[in-house]
Design brief:
By secondary structure, this protein is an alpha/beta fold. It folds into 2 domains: 177 residues, Nucleotidyltransferase, domain 5; 106 residues, Rossmann fold, CATH 3.40.50.10190. Helices cover 33% and strands 19% of the residues. It has 10 helices and 12 strands. It has a 6-stranded mixed beta sheet. Strands 10-9-11-12 form a 4-stranded parallel beta sheet, sandwiched between helices. Strands 7-8 form a two-stranded antiparallel sheet. Strand 9, helix 8 and strand 10 form a beta-alpha-beta unit. The radius of gyration is 20 Å and the shape is globular.
Length: 305
């Protein structure tokens, strides 16, 4: 396929199941044939954090079209293209949940994720959009403005193709038949129907359950280690939220750590009974008597409702 759609969404609240803005850049045979930053009326509430992050307010989208109204005009850019996005399962997850909310048939999306490509080929210490753009010299006019982010993703993709070539292994398929015509909990392709239960490969065993261990918690002057994928957004967004409330974020689980914050969508490894190093270490330290607490994302953000 010779047409690529570079895509980014912004969301109005922490649920990440509706769209307040879409950035779209369509390139066919190496020529840009369409680009737009489209404001969308999500028909739901806005969180202050999202307003501050995206600079999109309820008043700005009140008279804009909904995705249901926009979809006939833009659907061809998604159905007949390879979609390229940074953390593509998030953006496509938000899109598919919004389509499902309106009862719109969900296509089989072909997509490429530049986070996956960056991990495979660039191997930098971070893979966030802003970090990669700064490192590679890709113009990112304003992070969390949808069209700007889509263009940043485009620059990262072009850099990887220029230096490492392009092949069909880049392309994956994002399709969830059970989402057709209805909204579901998980906007991430690696999520499971119960946000806190992950199926074990031994079907005779009960699903793995993770629970918040802290009855009360604080952020200010406390240390957090993040693991899993977050409904709130990219890990960078969660880190910024914690820093804004006076906490700090570290990369390793140690005896001195205060909290391990577990994203709603866990990790692909957890599907087979392997929690991953961070959760396992936290459980081991707790068993040894250390006052290290585990907090699920859903309980963490309830604190700020």
């Amino acid at each position: 396929m010779s047409r690529f759609t570079f895509f980014d969404v912004e969301t109005p609240n922490r649920n990440n199941d509706r769209i307040s803005s879409m950035g779209i850049v369509v390139v066919e045979d190496g020529v840009t044939i369409f680009e737009a930053n489209i404001l969308v009326n999500p028909e739901v509430r806005f969180d202050p954090f999202n307003i501050d992050l995206t600079k999109i307010t309820p008043a700005m989208v009140r008279d804009e079209a909904t995705l249901k109204e926009l979809w006939p005009a833009v659907s061809a850019y998604f159905e007949n293209s390879i979609i390229v996005a940074h953390n593509a399962t998030f953006d496509l997850g938000v899109l598919t949940m919004t389509l499902a909310h309106y009862g719109i048939e969900i296509p089989r999306f072909q997509y490429i994720c530049t986070v996956v490509l960056a991990r495979r080929y660039l191997k930098y210490r971070k893979n966030s959009l802003d970090y990669l753009c700064a490192t590679l010299g890709v113009l990112l006019e304003r992070h969390h403005e949808a069209l700007s982010d889509a263009k940043g993703c485009q620059g990262i993709f072009y850099h990887i193709v220029e230096h490492h070539g392009y092949n069909d292994s880049f392309v994956s398929e994002f399709y969830r038949p059970h989402m057709r015509g209805k909204s579901i909990e998980a906007p991430n392709a690696r999520a499971y129907p119960n946000a806190h239960s992950y199926p074990n490969n031994n079907q005779s065993e009960a699903p793995i359950q993770l629970r918040t261990t802290a009855e009360h918690f604080e952020i200010k002057n406390k240390s957090f280690c993040l693991t899993g994928d977050f409904r709130f957004g990219e890990k960078t967004d969660v880190e910024l939220f914690i820093l804004a409330h006076g906490g700090c974020v570290v990369t390793q689980v140690t005896r001195q750590l205060d909290y391990v914050l577990v994203g709603t969508y866990g990790s692909p490894l957890w599907a087979y009974g392997n929690y991953g190093t961070k959760v396992k270490k936290a459980l081991d330290y707790r068993s040894a008597g250390y006052n290290l607490q585990i907090i699920l994302e859903v309980d963490f953000f309830k604190h700020f409702d």
